[in-house]
Write a structure and sequence with these properties.
Largest sheet: 6 strands, mixed
Distance between the termini: 9 Å
Number of helices: 2
Number of strands: 11
Strand content: 15-25%
Radius of gyration: 23 Å
């Protein structure tokens, strides 16, 4: 009898937690430059076939004045990107996005937010974590950056290297979470009813 009550309590606690997750949703913020097309911070993206949003925009200030940066999206690996003189094309991920951003006289990206990548449909990028790296051009007239992470000139989108900049990850739909919570509550009452009949 004590075991049945214990299982009922565990079932209720789990159900309540699942229902809370379904109601609140997933919140994560790393203080990064990834955002939506309105400039609102966003660090979780999904392919359109997972419901989107699939367009990764960036905005940033505090960069070098009147500079150009190549935008790279590299796979997040703890501590690797922070290693000076690391070749960016060896880090995996999307690589150079083909986008070059410019800053104004105060170090703010011009015409921000700027679209830098659209997550392709399918599961190829799903479940992965990424960093946005701004690879600074040596001079404002340079055609490109050097493709190497230089911690003195280049910029990571995450404030803390121990955190990824953003992730591409489908969430469990809210309806599914709500359904799991209701199943848990139903199971609780089913066990309770069964235990009353036996007693």
């Amino acid at each position: 009898m004590a075991r049945v009550r214990f299982l009922m309590v565990v079932g209720v606690v789990v159900s309540v937690l699942v229902l809370l997750i379904a109601c609140v949703g997933t919140v994560s913020a790393n203080g990064n430059m990834s955002c939506d097309d309105q400039g609102d911070t966003l660090d979780e993206f999904k392919p359109m076939d997972f419901g989107g949003p699939n367009e990764v925009y960036i905005q940033a200030d505090g960069l070098s004045n009147n500079a150009k940066y190549d935008v790279w999206i590299v796979e997040y690996k703890e501590g690797v990107v922070a290693c000076p003189w690391q070749l960016l094309d060896k880090l995996g991920g999307v690589g150079f996005t083909g986008v070059v951003v410019e800053t104004d006289g105060s170090g703010t990206i011009k015409n921000a937010p700027v679209l830098v990548w659209t997550v392709p449909n399918g599961t190829g990028y799903v479940g992965n974590y990424y960093e946005i790296v701004l690879d600074k051009h040596p001079t404002s007239s340079s055609v490109q950056g050097n493709g190497i992470f230089d911690e003195d000139d280049d910029v990571l989108d995450a404030i803390d290297i121990s955190e990824p900049g953003f992730k591409v990850m489908p969430e469990l739909p809210t309806v599914l979470l709500l359904g799991l919570g209701l199943v848990g509550v139903g199971t609780y009452f089913g066990i309770r009813r069964y235990s009353w009949r036996k007693a």
